[in-house]
């Protein structure tokens, strides 16, 4: 089990398109991934509804946890945290 | 289409006489021909009863329906492209969301039907989104749409909402909610026909704004079947069922002629004898400026500033406001731009202005009354406007909303003068201001009549209330008489009197307003072409005659009929 903490880059937070891109990537990861805001409840990162319902805004700090180890899990977290740090609303 | 006529003739044989037309209130003067499609009604809430199927069967049903809906949404997204595709793909993902699926499965295992499990699972996520408020609360509607689609598929009925067709269609609905019209692809809708709703309904406002052919309030859609070809004529307010070839051809020709006319370069508004009547645009944000100019707006007759204030918990800064006003004024160099100060109140509350609950917000602390109670807001707005005015070459006019007395007029123009606002005027929306216009106008530089509120207050009929919709017509002779009162006061004091309500967008009523002595008309930019063409058909004297015939009527409907008869008499005599 490994985790990373990252600050949200998208100007409008993690809803709409950024949430969709993130949930899509998480569901394609092949290993269970969760996301939590400020140490709150962890939700399935592959669930767009779960992700949206966290009400994550621009600049919020979130923790992404992958249920795995080794290079594959690191790779998954690299991809996901990069998605979270990117501003998709002004891309 | 001829076969449809034959079928309906045989099926109605020996029954009540066949309905041949439906009549409602036409919006604008356009026409349309095409097949009708019904807006499917919302589904009832699935009953909370124990399932008679096994858990496996119910689960399998949900899996199938969810997959069908998800694929359907993805397919629609691919067809739509752009921003719509993003929304539809997100909806497709919601349908197959793992957290939702888990919740649905739990409810089925607990003995529920697939329909009820889907309904409850979606509702629980909906509640979570709503609780977050703002943008996320709006996404709750997306979730509702997916939920209804899955339940419709499970129940084997049509999905509620705007139907999907390969060919453009005439949409028949009870009434359209804002959520429906937001997803309405206007390129696919030839016309809107609603059985409910009046001339101030959301459908009517949308139709005027977007220049869509529409008839509202037909009471019934009896006699219409999905796919029937009909003729919709907004000028007469009639939907013709089973139209013959001659009517279809004449209407098609009319649509072609109207489209050709809209292509012509826009000229300044004037009557047939050359009397100028400037045609201005109503705008709600800065983005609307360029399209308004393209449609030939000679300036802005009503710039609503609410967009700067809504959705914010604190008032915008002077610098923020100045940037928006400057962008607006820059779009109209050398032209008149009338800006209305913040028109908020208990019906559209702003936390920093007035959040006290009022039993009767239309008559509460709103418009200038609310600004006066928070005078710093009023002063900030005037500061920003004066600064934007100094930086640009547009002719800035500023008006206060909902002024009711002479004293309020003096209060406002005095403060405006402190900031160097050269042209400060008042909105006339309250009957008291219309009745005392001759005493108000000596103080104000101009008056602008807001016919929507003036009608609401004159007839004591709440604009938001469908049950009193019949009272809400600006054609009512009492409203026309008040407008005349203000126009006369304008004439005697030498002050301009404009109209900036929905009334100005009605091509026939525009003639009446000209006849009453109004000196400019401001409307949704989409209405400019029709009003411009209509004004060119009469001279000022003829407009006065038409206005007199409307004033002489007892009822709104009679006033309109009388004006139409007088206008027809005048224009056909000339031809």
Automatic annotation (TrEMBL), chain A:
Gene3D superfamilies: HPr-like (3.30.1340.10). InterPro entries: HPr (IPR050399), HPr-like (IPR000032), HPr-like_sf (IPR035895). Coiled coil: none annotated. PROSITE patterns: PTS_HPR_DOM. It is found in: Cytoplasm. One of its GO terms (cellular component) is cytoplasm. One of its GO terms (biological process) is phosphoenolpyruvate-dependent sugar phosphotransferase system. It comes from the Bacteria. Residues 1-91 form the HPr domain. Keywords: Cytoplasm, Phosphotransferase system. NCBIfam families: PTS_HPr_family. This is Phosphocarrier protein HPr. It comes from Okibacterium fritillariae. The lineage of its organism: Bacteria, Bacillati, Actinomycetota, Actinomycetes, Micrococcales.
TrEMBL record, chain B:
Residues 260-536 form the PEP-utilising enzyme C-terminal domain. The keyword Signal does not apply. Phosphoenolpyruvate binds at residues 304, 340, 452-453, 463. The active site is at 202 (tele-phosphohistidine intermediate), 500 (proton donor). Its cofactor is Mg(2+). It comes from the Bacteria. It is an enzyme of class 2 (transferase). It is found in: Cytoplasm. One of its GO terms (biological process) is phosphoenolpyruvate-dependent sugar phosphotransferase system. PROSITE patterns: PEP_ENZYMES_PHOS_SITE. Residues 167-237 form the PEP-utilising enzyme mobile domain. GO terms for molecular function: kinase activity; metal ion binding; phosphoenolpyruvate-protein phosphotransferase activity. It catalyses: L-histidyl-[protein] + phosphoenolpyruvate = N(pros)-phospho-L-histidyl-[protein] + pyruvate. Residues 23-139 form the Phosphotransferase system enzyme I N-terminal domain. Its main location: cytoplasm. GO terms for cellular component: cytoplasm. Keywords: Cytoplasm, Kinase, Magnesium, Metal-binding, Phosphotransferase system, Pyruvate, Sugar transport, Transferase, Transport. Mg(2+) binds at residues 429, 453. Belongs to the PEP-utilizing enzyme family. NCBIfam families: PTS_I_fam (TIGR01417). This is Phosphoenolpyruvate-protein phosphotransferase. It comes from Okibacterium fritillariae. The lineage of its organism: Bacteria, Bacillati, Actinomycetota, Actinomycetes, Micrococcales.
């Amino acid at each position: 089990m490994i985790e990373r903490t990252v600050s949200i880059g998208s100007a409008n937070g993690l809803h709409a398109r950024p949430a969709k891109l993130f949930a899509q990537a998480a569901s394609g990861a092949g290993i269970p991934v969760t996301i939590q805001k400020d140490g709150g409840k962890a939700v399935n990162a592959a669930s767009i509804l779960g992700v949206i319902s966290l009400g994550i805004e621009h600049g919020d700090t979130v923790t992404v946890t992958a249920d795995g180890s080794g290079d594959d899990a690191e790779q998954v977290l690299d991809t996901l945290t990069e998605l979270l740090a990117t501003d998709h609303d002004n891309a | 289409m001829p076969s449809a006529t034959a079928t309906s003739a045989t099926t109605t044989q020996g029954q009540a006489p066949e309905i041949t037309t439906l009549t409602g209130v036409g919006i604008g003067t356009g026409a349309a021909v095409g097949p009708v499609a019904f807006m499917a009604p919302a589904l009832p809430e699935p009953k909370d009863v124990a399932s008679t199927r096994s858990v496996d069967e119910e689960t399998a049903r949900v899996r199938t329906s969810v997959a069908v809906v998800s694929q359907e949404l993805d397919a629609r997204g691919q067809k739509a492209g752009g921003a719509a595709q993003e929304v539809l793909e997100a909806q497709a993902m919601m349908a197959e969301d793992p957290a939702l699926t888990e919740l649905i499965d739990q409810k089925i295992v607990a003995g529920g039907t697939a329909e009820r499990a889907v309904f409850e699972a979606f509702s629980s996520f909906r509640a979570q989104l709503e609780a977050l408020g703002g943008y996320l609360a709006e996404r709750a509607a997306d979730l509702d749409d997916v939920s209804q689609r899955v339940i419709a598929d499970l129940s084997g009925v049509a999905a509620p909402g705007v139907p999907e067709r390969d060919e453009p269609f005439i949409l028949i609905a009870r009434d359209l909610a804002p959520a429906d019209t937001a997803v309405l692809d206007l390129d696919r809708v030839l016309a809107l026909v609603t059985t409910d709703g009046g001339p101030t309904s959301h459908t009517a406002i949308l139709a005027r704004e977007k220049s869509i052919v529409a008839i509202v309030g037909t009471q019934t859609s009896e006699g219409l079947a999905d796919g029937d070809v009909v003729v919709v004529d907004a000028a007469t307010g009639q939907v013709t069922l089973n139209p013959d070839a001659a009517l279809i051809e004449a209407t098609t020709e009319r649509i072609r002629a109207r489209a050709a006319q809209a292509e012509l370069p826009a000229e300044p508004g004037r009557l047939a004898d050359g009397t100028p009547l400037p045609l201005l645009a109503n705008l709600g944000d800065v983005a609307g400026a360029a399209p308004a100019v393209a449609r030939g707006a000679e300036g802005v007759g009503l710039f609503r500033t609410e967009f700067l204030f809504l959705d914010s918990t604190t008032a915008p800064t002077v610098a923020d406001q100045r940037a928006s006003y400057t962008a607006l004024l820059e779009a109209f160099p050398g032209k008149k731009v009338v800006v209305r100060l913040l028109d908020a109140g208990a019906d559209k509350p702003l936390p920093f202005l007035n959040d006290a609950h009022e039993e009767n917000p239309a008559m509460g602390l709103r418009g200038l009354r609310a600004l006066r109670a928070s005078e710093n807001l009023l002063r900030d707005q005037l500061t920003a406007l004066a600064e934007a005015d100094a930086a640009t070459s547009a002719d800035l006019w500023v008006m206060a909303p909902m002024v009711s007395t002479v004293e309020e007029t003096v209060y406002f123009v005095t403060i405006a003068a402190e900031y160097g606002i050269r042209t400060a005027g008042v909105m006339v929306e309250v009957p008291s201001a219309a009745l005392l216009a001759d005493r108000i106008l000596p103080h104000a530089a101009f008056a602008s009549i807001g016919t929507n509120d003036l009608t609401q207050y004159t007839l004591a009929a709440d604009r938001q209330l469908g049950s009193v919709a019949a009272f809400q017509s600006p054609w009512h002779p009492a409203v026309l008489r008040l407008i005349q009162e203000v126009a006369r006061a304008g004439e005697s004091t030498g002050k301009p009197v404009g109209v900036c309500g929905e009334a100005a967008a009605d091509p026939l009523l525009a003639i009446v307003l000209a006849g009453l002595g109004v000196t400019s008309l401001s409307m949704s930019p989409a209405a400019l072409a029709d009003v411009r063409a209509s004004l060119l058909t009469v001279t000022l004297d003829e407009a006065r005659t038409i206005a007199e015939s409307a004033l002489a009527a007892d009822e709104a409907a009679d006033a309109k009929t009388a004006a139409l008869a007088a206008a027809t008499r005048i224009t056909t005599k000339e031809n």
